[in-house]
Each structure stands twice: as C-alpha cells, then as structure tokens.
Design brief:
The protein has a five-stranded antiparallel beta sheet with strand order 4-3-2-1-5. The protein has one domain (about 5-95). Helices cover about 25% and strands about 35% of the residues. It has about 100 residues and is of the alpha+beta class. The two termini are about 20 Å apart.
Length: about 100
C-alpha cells in the first residue's frame, strides 16, 4: 500500500473497521485520515443532502498490534468500492471531503 491510497483498515482489541486515506506505514503502526466505517453511510448521506455532517474525518495512528489487515478500497466484481459508492451518491471525490 502506498501513501495517498484509500484503504479499509481492520482492527482488533476492540474490533472495528476504519476507512480513509493512508498517510504512513512504519514498523510501529499506520496513520490514516478518515472515519470509522460504521459512520461512513450517515456521513456520506449528510454531505449529499448538504447538511452539516455529524461525523468528521480525523487523522488517527493505529499501533501495529491493533492492525489485523489493510485492504485497498477497490471494486471487487459487482461490489463497489467505498470511494465509488461515495462518488455515485455525492457526486464528488471522497478524497476532497477527507481533507
């Protein structure tokens, strides 16, 4: 994975998923700018409606012992990536809203 890519980070202890732009990886962990996956849908819908979002992207460091795996946010068969879903609902590039 390269810096600047949209990724989905699966975490443990506690289990959660985080989606956003990968900023950095190093032996101690990963830094991502984004939001918890469970907030993605409402965040996207609020932006699409022009309403003030109730969730905001944050830059977060996850220590390596919490990272189970990292996936590139990409389409797989008929399943759209989160970025493509965002584009179809909002009409803009998700990266512009993660700044």
């Amino acid at each position: 994975m390269k810096s600047g890519e949209l990724v989905l980070v699966h975490l443990v202890a506690p289990r959660e998923k985080f989606w956003g732009i990968l900023h950095e990886t190093n032996p101690s962990g990963v830094t991502v700018r984004g939001l918890a996956l469970d907030a993605f849908e409402s965040w996207m819908r609020e932006i699409a409606r022009g309403a003030p979002p109730s969730s905001f992207p944050a830059t977060v460091f996850f220590p390596l012992h919490r990272v189970e795996r990292i996936f590139a946010d990409e389409t797989s068969g008929e399943i759209e990536s989160y970025a493509e879903r965002f584009l179809s609902v909002v009409g803009g590039d998700a990266r512009d809203y993660l700044k």
